[in-house]
């Protein structure tokens, strides 16, 4: 039924391609890897087309399991015990037991949930098309609150005290108090996509600018803007350095978290979109190749490439 495809797949593929990915995307259906997270032992990767999440052994990349979630899974986060996945096409979040992948619950959120973060007690979800952020209690998935964010919120991170959200189409990054969801600040950042904290500062990838912006977490002051690759997307901190996925360059850039200086740029798979650190290695999900790349964090050397 063609009309259903236009309403369903068009919103799912075209809007996700043109809006959430930040560029026009006429893509054939493939096993597109999206979000990625580390649970202390294993790597979890969302498979957008298959409506599944894959668990890999972090030591050698071997397959641990593949588990069904909702439609169009994108973001993934670990709360210390369980795995949480945003389902973009279902307007839900799925909770899985990290120990065995069993389903613990599915919870309604806003329209087109994308990014996800854990604040130590609650799960925060960016609802890309309903322009809000949803806060769920991690203990039972119950709704704590919903907070407005104009301009298609996507990237999200917790800095140890506050939640930071990148609003892709309003050129702003918003800082929320975790206690009540009130806005603590809003800061100008052009086309923010990925958001990460280094414990003191917030790093935001600027999709159209080929740059990443560094803000002081305490007050949002601009510290610097640093060159990376084409269409920067996911950002991760490994304890020393900042890594930025260059979606349009099939590479990942490593910067010093101290001063933003370039430490290296390394080839990965097709269209790297998100990254995670396991403490020793950087794992990159490659959207258009349906694979993940594992690099040694110390020097960016290739450890392996694994299908999901």
Strand coverage percent: over 45%
Strand order of the largest sheet: 1-2-3-4
- Overall pLDDT metric: 92
Task: Please estimate the helix content.
Answer: under 10%
Q: From the alpha-carbon coordinates, what is the Rg to the nearest angstrom?
A: 17 Å
**CATH topology-level name of the largest domain:** Methylamine Dehydrogenase, Chain H
Total discrete domains? 2
Unreliable segments of 5+ consecutive residues: 1-15, 23-29
Known CATH architecture of the largest domain: 7 Propeller
Structural class: mainly beta
Question: How many β strands by DSSP?
Answer: 28
The biggest beta sheet reads: 4 strands, antiparallel
The shape is globular
Element pattern in H and E: HHEEEEEEEEEEEEEEEEEEEEEEEEEEEE
Secondary structure layout:
Elements: H1 2-7, H2 9-20, E1 33-38, E2 42-47, E3 52-57, E4 63-68, E5 73-78, E6 82-87, E7 92-97, E8 103-108, E9 113-118, E10 122-127, E11 132-137, E12 143-148, E13 153-158, E14 162-167, E15 172-177, E16 183-188, E17 192-197, E18 201-206, E19 211-216, E20 222-227, E21 232-237, E22 241-246, E23 251-256, E24 262-267, E25 272-277, E26 281-286, E27 291-296, E28 302-307
Antiparallel strand pairs: 1-2, 2-3, 3-4, 5-6, 6-7, 7-8, 9-10, 10-11, 11-12, 13-14, 14-15, 15-16, 17-18, 18-19, 19-20, 21-22, 22-23, 23-24, 25-26, 26-27, 27-28
């Amino acid at each position: 039924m063609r009309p259903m495809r236009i309403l369903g797949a068009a919103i799912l593929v075209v809007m996700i391609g043109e809006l959430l990915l930040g560029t026009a995307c006429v893509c054939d259906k493939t096993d597109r890897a999206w979000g990625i997270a580390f649970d202390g032992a294993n790597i979890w990767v969302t498979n957008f087309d298959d409506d599944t999440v894959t668990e890999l052994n972090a030591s050698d990349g071997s397959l641990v399991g593949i588990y069904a979630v909702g439609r169009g899974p994108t973001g993934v986060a670990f709360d210390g015990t369980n795995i949480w996945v945003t389902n973009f096409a279902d307007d839900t979040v799925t909770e899985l037991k990290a120990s065995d992948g069993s389903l613990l619950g599915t919870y309604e959120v806003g329209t087109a949930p994308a990014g996800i973060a854990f604040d130590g007690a609650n799960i925060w979800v960016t609802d890309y098309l309903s322009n809000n952020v949803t806060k769920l209690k991690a203990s039972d998935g119950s709704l704590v609150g919903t907070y407005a964010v104009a301009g298609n919120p996507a990237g999200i991170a917790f800095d140890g005290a506050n939640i930071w959200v990148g609003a892709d189409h309003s050129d702003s990054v918003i800082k929320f108090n975790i206690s009540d969801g009130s806005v603590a600040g809003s800061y100008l950042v052009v086309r923010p996509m990925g958001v990460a904290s280094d414990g003191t500062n917030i790093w935001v990838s600027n999709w159209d600018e080929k740059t990443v912006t560094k803000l002081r977490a305490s007050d949002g002051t601009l510290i610097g803007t640093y060159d990376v690759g084409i269409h920067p997307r996911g950002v991760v901190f490994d304890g020393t350095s900042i890594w930025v996925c260059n979606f349009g360059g099939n590479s990942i850039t490593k910067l010093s978290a101290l001063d933003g200086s370039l430490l290296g740029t390394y080839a990965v798979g097709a269209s790297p979109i998100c990254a995670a650190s396991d403490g020793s290695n950087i794992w990159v999900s490659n959207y258009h190749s349906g694979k993940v790349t594992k690099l040694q964090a110390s020097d960016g050397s290739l450890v392996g490439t694994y299908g999901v």
